[in-house]
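Please fill in the sequence for the structure shown.

STRUCTURE ENCODING:
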């Protein structure tokens, strides 16, 4: 209990010092207010979109039920297309199946793999408007002599929405409401079920808010939903000078405000960067590709606190200036939660990259620039850190 009280007091004191700092406190409090207002506006837009999605889905379900109850028989060509569309998502060689409709009766013929025959018939029978299935399929065990069954075709299937990486607004809203209710209900439970239900509820609510897959949410790896940053800027300097400046990673604290220190040893660069509320984060990276005056590509080592990969490209413009293009994908510590906390405290990587690139341009073109904490000069490679 004493340790918990001590840690709470230390955290509260650090937060007060961070927000009420005489020099930067006003700016930091303003950033938090802006982030909070932006989050509220985003939530309003999300609720509007989710409500519209639910209305559309409800209309679709009612229309489907009405069509099933009042189906007086669709034209044959419509039934054929319905069956063909359903089989295309399940059968590996659906084009080999010949489909003919006759007044609600579907006639299936052509070669099919034996292990897919039952699935094809069941799918056809479940198709709306089909009243009977006439099975004339040719079952094949070895497709080597049948051209229509050659090749490997992936079965797409119908992926349930809860398994998809990106959820619809309606799914996110229902997940958020369900997760919140489950978390509140867990407060009334005792024993092992309480932490299990609370964890499940918080996971659903967080998944709803972030719309990130579980690996990106937990910061376990580089998934499709990793946070991506892209920025390009023109610098009025020769491409070889820009490349050499960027290639020397020790120069990064001169123009990247949140990079405090960079050291390189045996091809591994160790980075110390500023985190939210005065914290610091360290990680290591190594170069994957380095083509002078063209591109530098890097990736963090597997056990880094921050998992990211990226590249910077240097293109010479017609007037002798250089276009610098940066692309970065990363998963922050603690995943989406860490990213949200960092944004709340004013460490938004996207905005930080924009500011850093502007400082890079100023440093290379004018020989000087400034950050919140220092004024640096590039000509004599000095700084006031």
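FILLED IN BY: designer on duty
SEQUENCE:
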């Amino acid at each position: 209990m004493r340790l918990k009280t001590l840690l709470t007091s230390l955290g509260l004191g650090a937060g007060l010092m961070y927000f009420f700092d005489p020099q930067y406190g006003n700016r930091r409090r303003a950033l938090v207010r802006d982030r909070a207002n932006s989050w509220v506006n985003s939530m309003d837009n999300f609720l509007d979109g989710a409500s519209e999605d639910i209305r559309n889905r409800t209309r679709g379900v009612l229309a489907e039920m009405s069509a099933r109850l009042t189906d007086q028989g669709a034209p044959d060509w419509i039934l054929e297309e319905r069956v063909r569309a359903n089989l295309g998502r399940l059968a590996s060689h659906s084009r080999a199946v010949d489909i003919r409709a006759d007044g609600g009766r579907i006639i299936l013929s052509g070669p099919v793999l034996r292990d897919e025959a039952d699935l094809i018939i069941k799918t056809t029978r479940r198709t709306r408007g089909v009243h009977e299935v006439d099975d004339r399929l040719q079952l094949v065990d070895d497709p080597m002599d049948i051209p229509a069954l050659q090749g490997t075709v992936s079965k797409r299937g119908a992926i349930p929405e809860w398994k998809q990486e990106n959820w619809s607004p309606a799914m996110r809203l229902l997940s958020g409401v369900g997760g919140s209710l489950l978390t509140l209900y867990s407060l009334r439970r005792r024993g092992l079920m309480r932490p299990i239900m609370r964890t499940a509820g918080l996971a659903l609510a967080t998944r709803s808010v972030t719309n990130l897959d579980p690996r990106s949410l937990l910061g376990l790896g580089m998934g499709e939903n990793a946070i991506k940053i892209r920025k390009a800027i023109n610098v009025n300097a020769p491409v070889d000078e820009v490349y050499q400046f960027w290639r020397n990673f020790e120069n990064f604290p001169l123009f990247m405000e949140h990079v405090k220190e960079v050291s390189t040893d045996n091809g591994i660069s160790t980075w110390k960067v500023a985190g939210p509320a005065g914290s610091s984060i360290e990680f290591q990276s190594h170069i994957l590709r380095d083509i002078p005056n063209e591109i530098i590509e890097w990736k963090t080592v597997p056990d880094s606190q921050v998992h990211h990969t990226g590249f910077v490209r240097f293109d010479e413009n017609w007037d002798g200036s250089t276009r610098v293009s940066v692309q970065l994908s990363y998963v922050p510590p603690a995943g989406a939660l860490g990213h949200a906390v960092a944004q709340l405290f004013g460490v938004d990587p996207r905005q930080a990259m924009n500011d850093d690139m502007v400082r890079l341009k100023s440093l290379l073109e004018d020989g000087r620039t400034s950050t919140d904490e220092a004024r640096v000069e590039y000509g004599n490679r000095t700084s006031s850190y």
